[in-house]
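Note to self: keep these together.
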Amino acid sequence: MADEHLITDLAALERLYGTPGEASLRKETDRLTPGYRAMVESSPFLVLATNGPEGLDASPRGDQPGFVAVEDERTLLLPDRRGNERIDSLRNIVGDPRVALLFLIPGIGETLRVNGRAAISAAPALLQRFVVDGKAPRTVLVIRVEKVFFQCSRAVVRARLWDPAGHVERAAVPTPGRILAELAAGFDGEAYDRALPDRVRQTLY
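Structure:
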């Protein structure tokens, strides 16, 4: 049965939402201005979105503020630190270089959105620039910036993201081990959870 309320064309969508304000348009640029560079260098966390044959993917990336290097006003360098070895994002980039990044800064309401195209580099000299605790990343994403703009604080304010009073207790959310035990019969979720904190600490880099 057709839903008469579905929005299926741009004209209908634009009639519903109207036109963006002047500031919303003026904030977009094709390069990293000094203000936008400061946001990148202050951020310890971002979400990397990619597109591949199996669909879209969004992956967290995090380290100390400045872990994403601003090479110049149109180039970002993002080291690929240790993870779960699925390399979903990297697989996607091999086939489709388009990426989108969302930077978050603790305590700050505004976020930063960057769209561009990424290449995967394993150049030894480049990897050496990102050594931490004696360990280099396996690859570095060289991201050519195409669009940059900040997102207003409304979503962060509504979510109370940085308000400690809104933080969720660990016991209220299933642990990784419990989730795995639900998905795989016979999996020892309790043992997985006991070992996880040490494994994370030992494999950060």
